[in-house]
Amino acid sequence: MDASLxxxxxxxxxxxxxxxxxxxxxxxxxxxxxxxxNGYSGQLDAVPDGATLIEGDIRDPETVADAMxxxxxxxxxxxxxxxxxSVERPNETNDVNLTGTxxxxxxxxxxxxxxxxxxxxxxYGRPESVPVAETHPTEPLSPYGLQxxxxxxxxxxxxxxxxxxxxxxxxxNVYGPGQRGGPYxxxxxxxxxRIRAGEPLVVDGPGTQTRDFVHxxxxxxxxLRAATTDATVEAYNVGxxxxxxxxxxxxxxxxxxxxxxxxxxxxxxxxxxxxxxxDISKARAALGYEPTVSLSxxxxxxxx
Length: 304
Fold this sequence. Notes:
By secondary structure, this protein is α/β, with parallel strands linked by helices. Helix content is about 40%, strand content about 20%. α1 links the parallel β1 (about 10-15) and β2.
């Protein structure tokens, strides 16, 4: 299966955000691309040239319907992605992550557009075993995880009721160029920012917790493959299948930067899962997905 899309009219919700911008960059030369984003966490002035920016909210039916007109494929990336924010403001995040997703699904089924939905490994909660397959029980530990799980199920329901073509991609720990810092940034970006500031790297808890760090280029690859696959009405993990401890990540970032900074440990995060690693055999078999960017190469590129 070719990881490309050509000659289509494409909508990327959240296309001014981290993953969305990378998707737009991959699509814009060969497709007519629209971006729907309200600028909540995205950078509207960073939307790649050649894409049409529609500044608006996915919760507004009229805006979404207008953006969806004559669209072939919608990549639904728009969301409030912070677990912490979802705990602090469950009503607001539910409104965006769930109500907004239903608006997108409903407009897509009327436009007869395929939906590639950005789901999350957060739907699994605390894994009973690793690597985690798509058949693993889903017991979210946060409103964010529950919102993504419910949206995932809405996608299947729309397929059953209306014949909507949909694919859910369950992202593990995504990192790469253009990921913004701040209190809700990913751990890779947080470590890199502290390296650049000459500050100690702070590991939450013992650092023995494992994660699956997947480069944004591979996430884009998975999205493009999902846009062209015949294996729809399915969910696929998007990771690397490789476990890395958070302590090891800190050491690898420090070594790659050749930085003279210490690594310290802070209190563990409440509800932090001990292990999270993807089983990607289903995506390999059905989508032809194969991770191409190693963690070492990804870190070196970011530091360069």
